[in-house]
Amino acid sequence: EIDFFPVQDDKARLAMCESQAWLPVASLFGLLGCPVPHRLKAQILLTLAAFAKSPEIAYSLWHTLEQSQAS
Q: What is the pTM assigned to this prediction?
């Protein structure tokens, strides 16, 4: 089991999502489309849910979700 503690802290979540070097939401959505084990996909979804706890990130995350479905 992966425990991703930075997403439990508001400031850490925002800092990670604002970093152009990391782009965690886009990277995690990209991994969902890859052939990875179901357990990893479940952990990715849990991590995305943790990021969505911040309203500033939730809007961006929702937009990314909509864009990924339009493709």
A: 0.81
